[in-house]
Every structure is written in C-alpha cells, then in structure tokens.
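Thread: Modeling a multi-component assembly for a lab meeting

Hi all, long-time lurker, first post. My supervisor asked me to bring a structural picture of a complex we are working on to next week's group meeting, and I have zero experience with this. I have the sequence lines for every component (832 residues in total). Could someone generate the structure of the whole assembly? Inputs are pasted exactly as I received them:
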Amino acid sequence: MKGVLITGFEPLDGGANPSWEAIGLVPGVRTALLPCAFGGTLEHLRAAVAEHDPAVVVCVGQAGGRPDVTVERVAVNLDDACIPDRAGHRPIDEPVVRGGPAAYFSTLPVKACVAAARAVGVPASVSQSAGTFLCNHLFYGLMHLIATERPAVRGGFVHVPFSPEQVLGEASPSMPVAMVAQALTAIATTAVSVSLGGDLRLVGGSLH
Amino acid sequence: MKGVLITGFEPLDGGANPSWEAIGLVPGVRTALLPCAFGGTLEHLRAAVAEHDPAVVVCVGQAGGRPDVTVERVAVNLDDACIPDRAGHRPIDEPVVRGGPAAYFSTLPVKACVAAARAVGVPASVSQSAGTFLCNHLFYGLMHLIATERPAVRGGFVHVPFSPEQVLGEASPSMPVAMVAQALTAIATTAVSVSLGGDLRLVGGSLH
Amino acid sequence: MKGVLITGFEPLDGGANPSWEAIGLVPGVRTALLPCAFGGTLEHLRAAVAEHDPAVVVCVGQAGGRPDVTVERVAVNLDDACIPDRAGHRPIDEPVVRGGPAAYFSTLPVKACVAAARAVGVPASVSQSAGTFLCNHLFYGLMHLIATERPAVRGGFVHVPFSPEQVLGEASPSMPVAMVAQALTAIATTAVSVSLGGDLRLVGGSLH
Amino acid sequence: MKGVLITGFEPLDGGANPSWEAIGLVPGVRTALLPCAFGGTLEHLRAAVAEHDPAVVVCVGQAGGRPDVTVERVAVNLDDACIPDRAGHRPIDEPVVRGGPAAYFSTLPVKACVAAARAVGVPASVSQSAGTFLCNHLFYGLMHLIATERPAVRGGFVHVPFSPEQVLGEASPSMPVAMVAQALTAIATTAVSVSLGGDLRLVGGSLH
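Re: Modeling a multi-component assembly
Sure thing. I ran the full set together rather than chain by chain. Output:
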C-alpha cells in the first residue's frame, strides 16, 4: 500500500492506546502519532504529510461507545470541547481555521470503504458527524491542508470502537484491536484504488 | 413574537403529526406545513418565506428515538436517503444544491436556544448532525435561501422527540406535544432577541 | 379507589423526588413515604400496611434511564447493591429474607396494568427485573409480607422514569410527573378491579 | 475440564449459529445442541445430562444487542414469548414447570465467572434476567432438573453477544466467536473449581 499515511492519537488520559496499536498492525503503510491537544496536532500532521508525501491520508481516532468502525463523511469548521484536551485547553465555539469554509467532505470513497470493511467481516457504517472535539479538529485540519496545499491527496477520518481491555466491566461495545486493524487495512486499500467519483452508490445515510 | 415563521412536516407515513400539532401551540408565530418529499419541500418553504417575510425561520422535524429537543448546528449539502420519502424518491449521495457550499451553520444562537428550553423545564441539547434525509435537506435549503437571497433573516432547525402516543408500547423515549411547544416557544423567543454573535458560551459540543 | 396504598421513596441523594410528587397526584389513595435504606424500609412498609389495611399495595420507585413506566413482574430474594444506600449500607449477595423463596411474582395483573397505562396515553411495558438494589428489596419484602401474613392483599411494584427536571442537560429519557401520575392512577384502578387470574393475555415478554 | 457439559441452541431462524460455533471451541468439554423450541428443548437437555453425567452444566444462548458476555443469575418459572419459536409455538404467561417454584438461582459462582472472563480479556457482567423466552425456559428447566433429580450438579446459563458476521451493517454490538469461546472456557474452568459458597464478593448488582 504505497503512499498511505495513517495517523493515530496518543491516549487522552495517559492510558491504553488501542487505535495506535491497531494502526501499527496495518501492513505497508506509514504511520504518525499525533498529540491529543488542539494546539499541536495540526502542526504534527503537516510535518508528517511533508515527510511522507502520501497519496492518501487516513486519520484515525476512537469513538468510545460506538459498536462499529465508522467512516466519517464531513468535517466542520468548529471546535467546541465538552472536556479539556491533554494540555487543559477547552475551546468553545471557535473555528478550526479562521475564515475557512463551514465544512469539508471526506475525499475517501466512504461507501466503498464501509463495504470493504464489511467484506472482511468487520461491522462498519458511515458517520455523519465526527463531533466537535479533537477528532473533528484534526479531520477538518487535514481536509483544509489538502484543499489549500495538496489537492492531489485523498483524505478522510475513521473512528474506531473501544478495545475490549478498555471496557472489561462496563457493558460497553468494543472491538478487538486486530479486528480494527483488518478494517483499517481494507479501508486503506480501498482508498488507494477507488476515487471519490468511483464510490459505490450504497445505502448509508441517516434519518437524523 | 412578530416575524417568526415556524415550519413543520406532514407525517412521513400518513400517521400522527405531533411536530405539526406542537407548532400550532406556539403563540404569535406564523406556521407552514411542508410536504415530506425531496421534490417540493424547498419550493413550499420559499413560498412561505415570500408570503410571511419573517425575520426568523425555525424549521422543525421529528427525530424519533432522541430523548430531548435538539437544536441543530450544521446543515450539509448532501441527500442520502436510507428510506424512500412519501413520493417514493430516494436520492443517494446527491447534493441538496448543486454547486452549493459543503455546509451552512445555523444562524440561530444555538446555545442560548438550548438554555432557554431548559429554563422552561424541557430537556434540550445541541445536535451536530441533522442526518442526510429530509430534515437536513430542508435545513440546508433554508440556509442556502437565506445566504443567497435573504441575508437579514436568521434561520435554523430543531428536532423534536416522538410523542407518547407514537410509542405507547415501544419502550422509546418520548415527549408530550405541549412540552415540545413550550420548548419551541422559548427557542423562538430567544432567536428573535439574541443574535448569533451574542450566543452564550456554554458547553454543548460532542466528543464524537 | 378505596383500599389502595401507594408507597414512594425519599430521594436517594437528597435531591428531587418526582416519584413521591407523582404519588401525591393519584386521587383517592393512601400514600406512604419510605426511607432509601436497606435497614428501615421494610419496617416502614409493614407499619404503613398495618395502619391503612389496604386491599392493594403498589410500591413505586424510579428507574432512571428507562423511557416508559414499567410494571415489574418478579421480585428476587437478593440484595446486591452496586452503590451505597442513604445510610451508607451496601450489601453484596445477601438474601432479602433469610430462608425465603428465591422469588415472588407480582400479584397485580401486570399485562392489564400496562394496557391501562397505555389506554390513558402513557408509554408502558412489563419489566422482568427490578434489579438487586432497594426497589427489588422493597418489592420482595412486600410480597413476602403478603405471602406470610396478608394473603388477601394484592401487591406489586412499578418503576417510573426520570422527571424532565432531573435531566435537563443529560440527553436521557424522561416523563413529566403529571403523566406518571396518570399512569399510576390507571394502574391502581386496574389493580383494584382485575385479579391476577383475570389478567389479559397480551404480548409482553422479553427475548432476553 | 472433566465433567462439564455445555449446551448451545440451533439458530432460531435457520441462519448463522455463532454460539454453537463458540461452544465447539471450548477444549475438553462435552457439548449438546438443543432445538429452538419450547417443546423439545428440555427433553433434549435431560437426555444430554443422562448421557454425559456431568458435574457442571452451562447452557449458552445468544442475547443479541448486549455488548458483553453475561452470566445469568436467576431463572423464573415463566414462559412469555414475544415471538414464535421455530415450531411456531408462542406461550403467553405459562409456567415452565407447573407447580414449580417461582425462580431458581444459578448454582454457578456468578461473580467468579464474570471475573474469570474479564481476566482473559473479555468484557463480562452479571445479568439479573434471562428474559421470558427460550433461554429462560431452558435455564429454569435445567435448574429444576438439578433441584429435583441431580442435586450434586452445578448449573447455570450464559448469554453471548451477536457475532460480527450477524451485524455487519447494523451498528449493533458484537463479539468474535473466538473471544466468546475464551470467555466460556474461563467460565467453565471456574465453575468446576469454585463452588457457589466460594463465590467472590464483588460488585455486580443492578440498580433496576
């Protein structure tokens, strides 16, 4: 999978880091670990893109509580943090990029990516919101970087569930790290080979 | 509440119409009933706006399963229907407005609207996605109309829960119509008196 | 509604007490307020039953997070507290009554009670577990009292949702106190007029 | 694991059978496949117990929608089917065993079983209700058989989540079959070595 950069976050609370572990199991891709902070994440992303010069960038974060792998569709120009980041920063209703457009759509073929994950046995779906915290911040920053400086790059964001170890006694949905890695491998492969214009016309919207 | 237009949808399936009933209980506003179809809804909205010449437009729809009143933050330029509309139409991955921007933010003071609903005793929160079905279609169409033709108008979208009558035996969250009307009254009043720039800086984002 | 005693709990945490308020709105019944503690609740119940000599006893508690009124079917002989009660007591895996049977079924006509609540417009269902905390403790204690000393009395337990005031900003299901009272009135009326043997044969079980 | 019999159900709808597959991966135990029907399941269970003469019987069923492995605590003497079984039979409010006690507690050390599953990395918890369908029917029938004819046998019931293959596009929690098998192995090992009297005093109750 030449030309794919996958990024993961360091843990928000200093604990486990299953999304980073999952990324490490995807064969043949470049990876970058990003800080869990509004200040710094986008600079690290820019540096990683400059270093690896990828054709496809897939940023990955954890959406604890979701039962399946979700391919995000849209990044919004909004930081609205309901908890502080690792640096204690907590922006409310600020733009990610002052003067940027309200939103960017993923340029990954989201339906084909979902279908590819399912084809390798991993439950997956399209998500219509990446929230307004660090994951959306990174997603928007990536798409703005692509739009303004790297128009040939395809980019998008994928949310992954808790690992079983994180929720042993919590009755919360989870997914083994190896299974997450299978989904990410299928998604990365699809992102390299299918353009957004060639995306599958599959059902995948939300009523609300 | 001079100058407020509130719209509701006709029922998707010909059954009950609690959001329309709720709108009818909001004092001192103009109302319009819109068809539950991708073809036609925006034309009806345009006609209602032309007729009433409002200062504020609040479109209302039902988000069955949500437990509280949700003030939507962002409309995306995407129709992706997971079920057919009343006319049997089911667009997949098509823009609401060809060539329109990826998204518009609500120009209602969403945090102040949420606070106003809570202040009258109704659970409420900000929502980061209005889905990709008719509600988002209408919301995007409204914001595009405002952006391109009616820049002085403030507009946004509010989702309301099932009514109790709709889910008597389904163990699903619901809210009485009169209570929904109280929230909508508080939201409309707030939308008239508070500008987006004067919105409250309250916690209200989503982690993912 | 001659001969009906309805009991409510004092708040666990000293805060609001919507179930007690709801009980106060049920016309023509006797009520008793019970302490939120493993030690004391059953003594208070016994005293209230002795004082009022009711034909029907309906104990009521709050099941925060449930969206509808639930008529409990079975009380089990088990105290297993996941949090301390108001007195700081936290029994783990102890019987409610040493030597008592494993469980008692409600002697209210649970299906007819559910149907009666729905008939007055309140979502309701049968629940197969009242948990292992104070509500089940009281429910089991009531049924044991009836079985051993008051065989002519009908008894059961009803769980009610959060009130809206308790969850204004929490995106949790809720139900207005007046609506809860309507359901309790319908349930009490049904419990007086319909015997367990005359219960309706309606669908109301759980798959698991 | 000498002396352990684990039973699984045939699929309710003729589809996949992950719980049966999982059981097949538990080393060193005897297994039996039971029909998904109120008429017949208990006869098959009795025959399997007679054939294998086990010291421990663990019956396993699927609880689709639950995110973790749940060790059931109590079986109730009630068949109340909300859907028909495979034979089209749908009992409503009938006893499993006419004249039997209202309930039996599991004689597995449920807290120790939960702890054992977590210790091998599988999310698990105690459940206070096995429903009123076939799983509870089998669980009650097992405990009644033990109580009346096989007092030396320990028995209980474990519910397992959907497999990923069953919910690829449904955004429902799931767990890989191999992981379920790990939990069942840990539970069976614990059930052999720890008596009910020696169960761990761990938190594991439910508020309601």
